[in-house]
Design brief:
about 35% helix; D-Maltodextrin-Binding Protein, domain 2; lipoprotein; palmitate; alpha/beta; about 290 residues; 2 domains; five-stranded mixed beta sheet; single chain; globular; Lipoprotein_NlpA; MetQ/NlpA family ABC transporter substrate-binding protein
Length: about 290
């Protein structure tokens, strides 16, 4: 009888432990938890500290996780290692979703800024010599943007209707026989001394200490239909109605944060407020182009 009571006693304790563990796991995945991890590609600049401060006033604890490799913030989001990320534009997000079979979606817009052709060797586009090397991104979304930039600058021509995911194979005219050196978009600033031109996001160039006087040509991302190069907060599709995440997405529109970002980029970048429906429509359209 005593042995049976001991057995029942230990069984009750075991069940309580299992129940408690189950409760902890559930609360760890609570969709409206006020502790939020956001993956970013750089913690430079004042924006993320300001966002954390504004969120803290709303009872939200943000942890900013810096992930330098541009593929990894999406992998981390899919795997549940972080709750949101903020490092990519819609074109890049659509590319990732198609390549990985993922379903990450925007929950709010963040930054937009121009990409430019920089040179430390030449002062004008017309001075670029025959056979010169040009540093461009190696991922399809940013590579397509770089080629469009070169086309707009009058250096190459692309096939009609190539869209925003062009590749060097889509070049139909290259009168200067420029050589395309493909590399990770974040590495292009490091090659500036070795190439005639490099296509670099102005925000990245600023963080790398590149003189803005070296800009030979830049695009206007706000002029493009659907704003495919609008950067976004991305979340897993099941978290689109998460109140905490939505609140964070709205907080980045705070006037103080917007001004701080503008000041940090010398007025060349801005935080934009794009309706969520428009962001999703653009993502769906771009995803259709990639499939």
């Amino acid at each position: 009888m005593k042995k049976r009571l001991y057995f029942l006693f230990y069984m009750i304790i075991a069940l309580n432990i299992i129940t408690a563990c189950g409760t902890n796991i559930s609360s760890g995945g609570n969709k409206d938890s006020n502790a939020v991890k956001i993956g970013v590609s750089s913690t430079d600049g004042p924006v993320w500290d300001l966002l954390k401060e504004k969120a803290k006033a709303e009872g939200i604890d943000i942890e900013i996780v810096e992930i330098v490799d541009w593929q990894l913030p999406n992998d981390a989001l899919v795997n549940g290692e972080i709750d949101m990320n903020a490092f990519q534009h819609l074109a890049f997000l659509s590319q990732y979703n198609v390549q990985r079979g993922a379903n990450l979606v925007p929950i709010g817009s963040t930054f937009i800024g121009p990409k430019a052709l920089f040179s430390e060797k030449y002062d004008k586009i017309s001075e670029i010599p025959n056979g010169a090397s040009v540093a461009i991104s190696n991922d399809p979304a940013n590579m397509g943007l770089d080629l469009k930039l070169l086309e707009s600058a009058g250096l190459i021509e692309l096939k009609d209707g190539v869209g925003i995911f062009g590749t060097p194979e889509d070049i139909t005219k290259n009168p200067k026989q420029l050589k395309m050196n493909e590399m990770d978009a974040q590495q292009t600033p490091r090659t500036l001394q070795d190439v005639a031109l490099a296509a670099i996001y102005i925000s990245i160039a600023g963080r790398a200490g590149i003189d803005m006087e070296n800009i030979l040509y830049e695009n206007d991302p706000l002029s493009m239909d659907g704003l495919p190069y609008a950067n976004v907060f991305a979340v897993r599709s099941e978290d689109t109605e998460n109140k905490t995440y939505k609140k964070i997405a709205s907080l980045i529109q705070d006037p103080e944060i917007k001004q701080a970002y503008s000041d940090d980029t010398g007025g060349l970048g801005e935080i934009i407020d794009v309706p969520l429906d428009d962001l999703q429509k653009t993502l769906d359209r771009l995803t259709g182009q990639k499939k």
